Amino acid sequence: MKKAKKEPIKNGKIWIVLGLLFAMVNPWYFPESFGEILVYGVPLWAVIIIIASVLLSAFLSYVLKYHWMLEEEEEEAEKKGAK
Amino acid sequence: MELAFSGWSGIVILLVYGLIMLSVGVITFLRNRNIHQSLDEYYLGGRGLGVMVLFFTFFATQYSGNTVVGYPPSAYRLGYEYLVSVPFFIMIIMAYLLFAPRLYSLGKKYNLITPAQWFEKRFKSKGVTILASLLMLYGLGNYLLEQLVAIGQGVDGLTGGTVPYQVGVVFFVIIMLIYGWLGGMRSVAYTDTMQGIALLFGVFMLLIGSIIYFGGLPTSADYMQAYSPEKLGVPDGPGVVNWFSLLVLIGIGAAVYPHAIQRIFAAKDERTLKRSFSRMAWMPFLTAGVVFIIGIIGINAFPDLSTAESEQLVGMMASAVASQNVIFYWAMVLLFGGVIAAIVSTADSVLLTFSSIISNDLYGSYINPNASERKKLLVGKLVGVAAVGILILVAWFPPGTLYQIFVLKFEVLIQIAPALILGLYWNRLHTKAVFTGMLSGTIVASVMTIFGWSYLGVANGLWGLLINLIICVVGSLVMSVSVVEEEEAKQVIGL
């Protein structure tokens, strides 16, 4: 069965999530006290930025894998044809 | 820079690295003798790069020796505010999502070799293509210059001055020119892989050594709490603006690096490209994150360094770690060899793209369109060699800090972004608006930088980009594109 072509830029939901994650990797929303609380020597605000960065990377990997599908199917078919 | 492990061991490791690079070039040449007849084969490795090699060659475009040597001093001076270096590398992958999927498809459809060729295909305008080509050549030239300076300083440091700056630059430049000439993109990508692995290994050893020798983050945090609590604090207003502007500037800027765009065309297939990007999305933690921690540990290890002294931080830490035992000694030698190798790997990528724009877009499209591919290739290679020669002369007088020039090249290169990205999706984008926008953006960003103006703490490149974007959009809305042109554009960008 032929899967529909998918292009990340056309999927608004992806960009809403990316927008939220982008907002989270900027340090604008921390109270000053987050610089004083340390978690294993790392200030709390930095820990949150790191977690947000991990989420951003994870979401990007997910989008790359499942929401970008323009040529893959044809290329896979070509490969099989060539074998 | 005084390194405890500088001297003969440094010379040995540099010779070994040099020989490996050279052999890669020769083997590639012997295995692919036909690549010197075809731009596709030479500049894109025949569009056949697999996941691993493609990943490392993308890695080399984004992470250089400067990441290892230049970032820890920034972390040392700014403290946790410099944690921004982790998300800004992730932003590059987000920026790729804006254009890489379609650009890959179109690159395949039209056999595109360079980013400038895409501008020609899309806008069919000599003005836009030449302006974009010149901006890219200028940006790439600056970038290459920076790498050459860094090679010289690195060799000088690693060999304890036994090998002078000039000899170091010439040695590696000649090796780079030979393997680049022999194997094109294949050589460049294979050496990138070897260089990337050496760098990653060395950086991890330095991290482990630093933690053992100087204590980890908690020790450093105790020191900061006592003496410089601002380095732990939440960034203030201007700090947040700077953070935001770095994320946007570097995210978009590094994604539209001409040599990065070219690698999209070199992917074997879409799946390969996606997998490489997916790995790249995690690399910031392993590279920028690790060197950030090294810088933070340095705050406790070598307190109260002046700005100039702090630039030597990685050398000081590596020297201390190397004197612990023989394993760390050789690991640090490998690290510094790896740093130099990584700089060479960034330089070779830049040079290859530089030559390709000359071969394909300036010489091949406008000066002598009827030339054979072999001749176009030869002209590109020769101009590349000449450009390196000129840049070496400039490199004899290296500028002070590396960071300023780093921002400078971004400001110019980023101006191709609106035409590149909007052009992929919007068939009413007007050629004249694109040209005016690109030119105005460049002028604004360059003038602001040259005169040292800044506004609201946002990077100058971003102001240029904003003006560029507004002119592109408003200009296109005001001037109407003819029905024929719109239809043509639709044909070009349609999938």
TrEMBL record, chain A:
Keywords: Membrane, Transmembrane, Transmembrane helix. The chain crosses the membrane at residues 12-30, 42-64. This is Uncharacterized protein. The lineage of its organism: Bacteria, Bacillati, Bacillota, Bacilli, Bacillales.
UniProtKB/TrEMBL annotation, chain B:
It is found in: Cell membrane. One of its GO terms (molecular function) is symporter activity. The chain crosses the membrane at residues 6-30, 42-60, 80-99, 127-145, 165-184, 196-220, 240-260, 281-302, 327-357, 378-397, 403-426, 433-456, 462-484. The keyword Membrane applies. Gene3D superfamilies: Sodium/glucose cotransporter. PROSITE patterns: NA_SOLUT_SYMP_3. Its main location: membrane. GO terms for biological process: sodium ion transport. It is a multi-pass membrane protein. InterPro entries: Na/Glc_symporter_sf, Na/solute_symporter, Sodium:Solute_Symporter. GO terms for cellular component: plasma membrane. The keyword Cell membrane applies. PANTHER family: SODIUM/PROLINE SYMPORTER-RELATED, SODIUM_PROLINE SYMPORTER. Belongs to the sodium:solute symporter (SSF) (TC 2.A.21) family. This is Sodium:solute symporter. It comes from Halobacillus andaensis.
